[in-house]
Specification:
The protein is of the alpha/beta class and 671 residues long. It folds into 4 domains: 170 residues, 3-Layer(aba) Sandwich (Rossmann fold); 187 residues, Rossmann fold (3-Layer(aba) Sandwich); 131 residues; 105 residues, Transferase(Phosphotransferase), domain 1. The protein contains 27 helices and 27 strands. The strands form 5 sheets. Strands 15, 16, 17, 18, 19, 20, 21 and 22 form an 8-stranded antiparallel beta sheet that branches. A 7-stranded parallel beta sheet has the order 3-2-1-4-5-6-7, with helices on both faces. The radius of gyration is 30 Å and the shape is elongated. It starts with a helix and ends in a 10-residue tail after the last helix. The mean pLDDT is 92.
C-alpha cells in the first residue's frame, strides 16, 4: 500500500510539473537553441531508423558519456550482434556521443520520466538490457523495465553522504526505485556501503570507470595544433567552472600576473550558456580575451583564453602547466579530477569536492592534489606551483601513478553484466516481418519465420515426436537433435468459446508469449530449473494479437501427477526437493499462478523442474506465496480423487513444507 501511494504521489508531482518543465525548456532554448530541438525524443518518440533490441546505455551528460565510452566499446566487442543505443539528457552530452562514437551506436535522448513517454520508448526500442551510468534513478523507467523483465544495471554508481541523506529523506520514492535495479556496480567502498544501507542487496564493488577514460581520436591533432602557441606560456587551466568562480579566478589572475608575466588563464565554463557571460566578465576586468570560437590561436598578448567549444577540455588539460577543477570554490560538489591526472598534471581543488570525495581523499593521502580552503590559499598554492616546475611534476606524477593503479573497472563491470545476463545477449535476436515480431535464439535457429510456429510444417519435416494431452494441444518437435515444445496461446473460460486465440491488443513486450519468454530467460539467469525459451512469435491484428512460443523440452522428465498415477510414490527427499524448488522460485519473487502437480517435473537425476509460466509474474513477497502452495495442495487432492491408483498421502505434504522452510522464505505479506 505504501509503495502504491508513493507511486501516485510521484506521478502527481510529475504532471503538476509539466507546464513548468516546458517553460524551463523554452527558457533554456532562448540561451541555447538545442534545448528546443528534438522535443519528440524527450517524450518517447524514437528517431527514424532505430533498430529494436540490444543494449541501452544511459549517460546523463558529458562526464558520464566520457566515462562510459570504454565500457561501450567493451560491450560492442562482447556482443557484436546487438545494437547499442546511447542516451543522454543534455545537448552537450548528445554532442559528445556523436563526436566520440559516431555511427557505431544509435543515439537519442532518454525521455522524461512520464509513464506514457517511458512506455513508448520501451515498447518501440524493446531493449534487452539497460545500463545506467552513475546514479540516475528514474522511478517510472525502472518500474516499467521491471514489469517488462528488462534487466537494469547501475554502473559506476556513486553515492555521497549528502546524497544518501537525501535518499533516506525521500525513501518512500527512492527505496522502491532502487529495489527494482537488477544489479548495482559501485565505484567505491563508501558508495557500496551506503547503497546497501538503503536496502539494495545486489551491490558489487567494481571501481571507477573514469580511471579508464578513452581518449578521443582527435586529441593528438588538437594538442599538436595548440602546442606551438602555448609552448612559451605558463598555462593555468580552470576546468568546469561555475558562476561565482570565474569572477574570483579573473581577480586572482591579475595578482598572479605581476609575478608570472607569461601566465595564460584558460577558462572552461561547465555550461555553454555561460560562455558569453564569462566573456563579458573578462572584458570588464580589462583583460585581453581570446575565444576558441573565433578561430586561430591565442596571441602572445592574450591573457585569458575562453574555451567556448565542446569536446576539447582534454586537449587543454594535456597542454596545461597547472589545473584547477571548478565547482569546488562554491558549494557545488566539485568535478572529476581524473581527466587531468591521467596526463600527470598537478591538480588543485577548492574545499567543496563532496561529489568526488573518494578520489580526492585518496589523492590527498598520496600528496597528489592541492586542496585549498579559499581564494587566498588558492593564490598562494598557485604561485608556489607555477614557480617550481619540479614540484608540479612530482605532484602530477604521484597523481598519474594513482590513476594507473585504479584501473580495471571496465573489465569487472562487463564481467558482472555477462554474469547477470548469461548468454542471452549473445544469442537472443529480434526479427520483424510486417505485423509479426519474432524473438529467437540464434544458437538454435539461423533464421526464424512463421513456418517454425506451424505444427503442419513440422509434420512435413517428419519432426513431430508427440503432443500433450489437455485443454489445448502442445506439440513436441525435434530440431537439431534437440526436443522442443511448440505452444499456441489460447483463451480460456467463456471468452475462449467465443474467441479461442485472439487477445486484446498489447504491445509486443507485454504480450503473453514475450512475457513468458522474458520470464523464463530471467529465471534461468537466476539459476532456476525452468525450460530454456527458444523462440516466440507475436502477430498483431489491429486491435488484437495472437502468440506462440517454442521452449526446450526437459528430457527424461515426467510430471508429478503422471509419476504418482502410473509409477510410484515419491520419497521423502523428493518431496522435500519439490518444496525447495518452489522456495527458490519464491525467493526470486516469481508468482506461479498455476502451480499444480502437472506443472512440476522430476527427471531421472532427481532435479525438480517447474514449467508453464503463462500469465506468471514477478512480485514482492506477499500472501501470494502461500496461495501458490495451497494451489499445489488442492491439485494433489483433485488428482487423487480423479486417478486411481495415486500414490500420495497427505502426510507427504509436510516434507514439501520442510523443504520450503529450509530456504527461509517469508510467507507473510510485505508492503
Amino acid at each position: 500500500m505504501a509503495q502504491a501511494l508513493s507511486r501516485v504521489a510521484y506521478q502527481l508531482l510529475l504532471y503538476l510539473g509539466l507546464v513548468p518543465l516546458l517553460v524551463y525548456l523554452g527558457w533554456r532554448a532562448m540561451r541555447d537553441r538545442r534545448y528546443g530541438q528534438r522535443l519528440a525524443e524527450r517524450f518517447g518518440w524514437l528517431p527514424a531508423g532505430c533498430q529494436a533490441g540490444g543494449i541501452v546505455v544511459h549517460a546523463v551528460s558529458v562526464g558520464e558519456t566520457i566515462a562510459a565510452i570504454p565500457l561501450i566499446k567493451q560491450l560492442q566487442q562482447q556482443y557484436p550482434n546487438q545494437p547499442i543505443t546511447v542516451t543522454c539528457t543534455t545537448p552537450t552530452g548528445s554532442a559528445t556521443i556523436r563526436s566520440r562514437l559516431g555511427d557505431s551506436v544509435q543515439h537519442c535522448y532518454l525521455p522524461f520520466d512520464y509513464p506514457g513517454a517511458i512506455r513508448r520508448f520501451i515498447n518501440n526500442l524493446q531493449p534487452q538490457l539497460i545500463v545506467i551510468v552513475e546514479t540516475e534513478l528514474w522511478p517510472n523507467l525502472l518500474q516499467q523495465c521491471h514489469k517488462a523483465m528488462i534487466p537494469t544495471v547501475l554502473v559506476n554508481a556513486r553515492l555521497s553522504a549528502r546524497s544518501a541523506k537525501g535518499y533516506r529523506r525521500f525513501a518512500w520514492l527512492t527505496r522502491p526505485a532502487l529495489q527494482q535495479v537488477s544489479l548495482l556496480l559501485a565505484q567505491d567502498k563508501a558508495s557500496a556501503r551506503r547503497f546497501r544501507a538503503l536496502g539494495h542487496s545486489q551491490v558489487q564493488l567494481c571501481g571507477n570507470l573514469k580511471f579508464e577514460m578513452r581518449l578521443p581520436d582527435n586529441l593528438d591533432a588538437i594538442s599538436a595544433a595548440l602546442a606551438p602557441a602555448l609552448s612559451a606560456r605558463l598555462v593555468w587551466v580552470a576546468g568546469s567552472t561555475h558562476e561565482g568562480e570565474d569572477e574570483q579566478l579573473l581577480g586572482l589572475y591579475r595578482q598572479l600576473q605581476r609575478q608570472f608575466s607569461n601566465l595564460l588563464l584558460v577558462l572552461v565554463p561547465r555550461h555553454p550558456e555561460r560562455f558569453n557571460k564569462v566573456a563579458g566578465l573578462t572584458t570588464e576586468a580589462g583583460l585581453q580575451l581570446w575565444r576558441r570560437s573565433d578561430g586561430g590561436m591565442p596571441a602572445v598578448t592574450t591573457e585569458v583564453a575562453l574555451i567556448d567549444s565542446m569536446g576539447e577540455l582534454l586537449a587543454w588539460y594535456q597542454q596545461a602547466s597547472l589545473v584547477f577543477i571548478g565547482g569546488s570554490l562554491i558549494n557545488r560538489g566539485g568535478h572529476n579530477p581524473l581527466e587531468a591526472i591521467c596526463f600527470g598534471k598537478a591538480v588543485q581543488t577548492g574545499p567543496h569536492y563532496f561529489n568526488f570525495a573518494d578520489a580526492y581523499n585518496q589523492l590527498a593521502q598520496r600528496q597528489a592534489v592541492s586542496v585549498v580552503q579559499n581564494v587566498a590559499q588558492l593564490q598562494q598554492n598557485t604561485a608556489a606551483l607555477l614557480a617550481d616546475t619540479v614540484l608540479r611534476q612530482q605532484q602530477g606524477e604521484r597523481a598519474r601513478r594513482f590513476y594507473q593503479s585504479q584501473q580495471g573497472a571496465v573489465a569487472r563491470s562487463s564481467k558482472a553484466i555477462a554474469a547477470l545476463y548469461g548468454d542471452s545477449l549473445l544469442n537472443v535476436q529480434r526479427h520483424a516481418a510486417g505485423s509479426e515480431l519474432y524473438w529467437y535464439r540464434s544458437d538454435w535457429f539461423d533464421s526464424i519465420s512463421a513456418e517454425q510456429f506451424d505444427p503442419l510444417w513440422w509434420q512435413q519435416q517428419h519432426a513431430v515426436t508427440g503432443s500433450s494431452a489437455g485443454r489445448n494441444t502442445a506439440w513436441f518437435v525435434q530440431h537439431r537433435q534437440q526436443q522442443l515444445v511448440l505452444r499456441h496461446y489460447y483463451r480460456g473460460g467463456l471468452a475462449g468459446k467465443l474467441n479461442k486465440d485472439r487477445f486484446f491488443y498489447q504491445s509486443a513486450l507485454y504480450s503473453r508469449a514475450m512475457q513468458e519468454f522474458s520470464l523464463l530467460q530471467w529465471m534461468r539467469q537466476q539459476g532456476l530449473a525452468v525450460p530454456k525459451p527458444v523462440a516466440a512469435r507475436y502477430q498483431q491484428h489491429r486491435l488484437s494479437y495472437q502468440a506462440d512460443l517454442l521452449i526446450e523440452r526437459i528430457s527424461d522428465a515426467r510430471d508429478l501427477a503422471t509419476i504418482l498415477h502410473t509409477g510410484r510414490a515419491l520419497t521423502d527427499n523428493e518431496w522435500q526437493a519439490v518444496g525447495t524448488a518452489i522456495a527458490r522460485l519464491h525467493k526470486a519473487g516469481v508468482d506461479h499462478t498455476d502451480l499444480n502437480c502437472r506443472n512440476i517435473l522430476l527427471d531421472q537425476s532427481g532435479t525438480v523442474w517447474l514449467i508453464d509460466f503463462d500469465k506468471c509474474l514477478r512480485r514482492p513477497a506477499g500472501d501470494w506465496q502461500q496461495h501458490n502452495l495451497q494451489r499445489l495442495l488442492r491439485s494433489l487432492h483433485k488428482e487423487q480423487a480423479k486417478l486411481s491408483p495415486f500414490h500420495w498421502q497427505l502426510a507427504a505434504w509436510q516434507h514439501v513444507i520442510n523443504g520450503y522452510q529450509q530456504q527461509k522464505v517469508p510467507l507473510n505479506p510485505h508492503n
